[in-house]
Amino acid sequence: MADPVQRRTALVRLRQVRVLPAVLLALAILAASALLAQMALRFVGEDVATKRTVASVSVPLPRRARNLPPVPTYAAPAAGTTGTIALPPVPAAFARQVVGDGSVVAARPFSTVQASTIDRARALECLTAAIYYEAASEPDDGQRAVAQVILNRARHPAFPATVCGVVYQGSERSSCQFSFACDGAMARVPSASGWARAARVAAAALGGYVFGAVGLATHYHTYAVTPAWNRTLVMTDAIGAHFFHRWKGFWGTAGAFIQRYRGGEPVPGPHRRIDPVLELPVIAASQAVVAPAPGIVPPPLVPSAVPTAAARAITPDTQVQPRHATSGQAVAPAPTATTAPSSESQVLDRWKDSGKPLR
What we know:
The radius of gyration is 35 Å and the shape is elongated. It is about 30% helix and about 5% strand. The chain is built from seven helices and three strands. α3 (about 115-135) packs across α4 (about 140-155). The chain is mainly alpha-helical.
């Protein structure tokens, strides 16, 4: 008799238990466990991504640095201050887009799939030079941040669509966006170990590595200077000796970075100088060509058999190097039309009678 009574009592107690609160509590416990697991995995993933090693990449030193004995003084980082430019109006298609909450948003991985092998090599050389001369003494994260700013600019419509174009922008008018391209820092021979370190960071960035700490930053400057434009921007992070900034409003959001990288890299190095008066490229060898300003048409070349005195005086004598001072003079006078041709026969003696008829 005790067993049926006990079973009946247990059933009554089970009916008195509310099932819904228990189910909700179980679901809450499961959700909290999943959230904790996701946070742990994210923390571990970021830690691994930060500490992962990049395969060694061999990038040749600049041509002037080859076959030279080591020198005690190497190139030091430049002032480390990017320039800024005026932004165009916001496109009508994006005028009503939500700007965002101001949080730091990581950039998309950079891709060189549509670039040729030559373009990739030039992009690697230009990015390596920028990292070295701008952040040679910075920690690894400081160099990664500088590389991220350059690649962010390459995908922003306010800047050139090439890596070399971004790095040497403004060098044609001595108003470089990156100070090392105009301040003479490139005249010194780079350190081999420092160059190799910068090349590894550049190769990783071009291969898709994203340094998310700086977000969509397109500007930076050192803590030693305070440029006027930093008040108009939003600071994303401070790494090493640099403060990193992005634009306010639409131009600083992910929706503005719509420029695709398709290669077309110019020759690595400062661009051809632009004459400030004529707005025409100044003749220089082995440099990237910069097109004349819109609306400026170069003067046509007038063919002439004999160059005039004005045509010969393009370069002032004071600018001609001594070893080339006489390079434009003729070596010997050209033969004149009045010179009578020689009447002496040019036929050898043994062939003089070869034309007589046979008997």
